[in-house]
């Protein structure tokens, strides 16, 4: 499949409509008279950080082993966010020890962060973590000591695409997408074709004629062993290979009395060549 022109061939599960409700009132500044019809049970507690209330955020897993990383750049503030599980024990997984994995990456796309002002971060052959470095915002005790992707047969699959963050004059926003916390193992045919085509479709939607803002979250299935293909790496560097990947896109464009101008679409895709 060269392009995602017929989405039904890629979608296992599809959420085509979403009743958006705020955590305590209307979240639409253009239409404050819209009132929620039900309580949003997936609302995050923003007492620790108000960023957790942004519309691209899914429900946080929480717990002491789950770390929310907020990447920022001086020019624009929040670049993207990640939830990282430093002590993952999937349901049905029996070996001793635990895994580590990113849960999702989420971000916004709008006119202010969508101009291509810089190129992709230059390729770096300087060493094991030169191209895909440890995340400096992740506590150092959780850093990888060896790259589990090396010689595994799996690509470093960007969750937030490098091409979605080309707006910073100094490559900083783009460089952050290469952190290990933004990676999931993907077979090359999936990474370079299906996933890349889905990423390209999101970028096609990222135009002023289609959106005011896109709210995007992406990730893989890591909480159940029957939704994991295998693991790669060893010891404290062991990570799961998701059996499925997902993207969810919420589009805000204008406003109306019924929906507030929101549309949503979700993808649940099997990870295979």
TL;DR of this structure?
The chain is mainly beta and 273 residues long. It has helices at 172-176, 188-205, and strands spanning 13-15, 66-73, 77-88, 99-110, 155-158, 183-186, 213-220, 228-232, 239-242, 244-252, 262-270.
Helices and strands in order:
Elements: E1 13-15, E2 66-73, E3 77-88, E4 99-110, E5 155-158, H1 172-176, E6 183-186, H2 188-205, E7 213-220, E8 228-232, E9 239-242, E10 244-252, E11 262-270
Antiparallel strand pairs: 1-11, 2-3, 3-4, 4-7, 5-6, 7-10, 8-9, 10-11
Task: Explain the overall architecture.
The protein is mainly β. It has a domain at 61-236 and 259-270: Extracellular Endonuclease, Chain A, CATH 3.40.570. Helices cover 8% and strands 29% of the residues. The chain has two helices and eleven strands. The protein has helices at residues 172-176, 188-205, and strands spanning 13-15, 66-73, 77-88, 99-110, 155-158, 183-186, 213-220, 228-232, 239-242, 244-252, 262-270. A seven-stranded antiparallel sheet has the order 1-11-10-7-4-3-2. A two-stranded antiparallel sheet has the order 5-6. The radius of gyration is 19 Å and the shape is globular. Mean pLDDT is 86; it is low at 1-22 and 24-34.
């Amino acid at each position: 499949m060269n392009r995602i022109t017929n989405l039904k061939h890629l979608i296992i599960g599809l959420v085509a409509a979403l009743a958006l409700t705020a955590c305590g009132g209307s979240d639409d500044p253009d239409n404050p008279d819209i009132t929620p019809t039900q309580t949003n049970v997936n609302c995050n507690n923003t007492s620790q950080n108000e960023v957790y209330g942004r519309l691209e955020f899914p429900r946080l897993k929480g717990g002491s082993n789950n770390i929310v990383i907020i990447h920022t750049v001086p020019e624009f503030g929040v670049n993207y966010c990640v939830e990282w599980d430093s002590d993952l024990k999937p349901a049905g997984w029996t070996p001793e020890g635990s895994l580590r994995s990113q849960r999702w990456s989420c971000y916004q796309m709008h006119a202010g962060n969508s101009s291509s002002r810089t190129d992709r971060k230059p390729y770096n052959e300087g060493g094991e973590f030169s191209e895909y470095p440890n995340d400096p915002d992740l506590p150092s005790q959780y850093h990888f000591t060896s790259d589990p992707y090396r010689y595994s047969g799996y690509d470093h699959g960007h969750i937030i695409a490098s091409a979605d963050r080309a707006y910073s004059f100094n490559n900083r926003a783009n460089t952050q997408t290469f952190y290990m916390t933004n990676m999931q193992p993907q077979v090359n045919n999936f990474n370079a074709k299906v996933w890349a085509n889905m990423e390209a479709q999101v970028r096609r939607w990222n135009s002023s004629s289609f959106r005011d803002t896109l709210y995007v979250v992406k990730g893989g299935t890591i909480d159940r062993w029957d939704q994991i293909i295998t693991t790669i790496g060893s010891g404290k560097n062991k990570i799961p290979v998701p059996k499925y990947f997902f993207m969810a896109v919420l589009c805000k464009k204008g406003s109306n009395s019924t929906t507030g101008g929101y549309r949503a679409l979700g993808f649940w895709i099997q990870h295979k060549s």
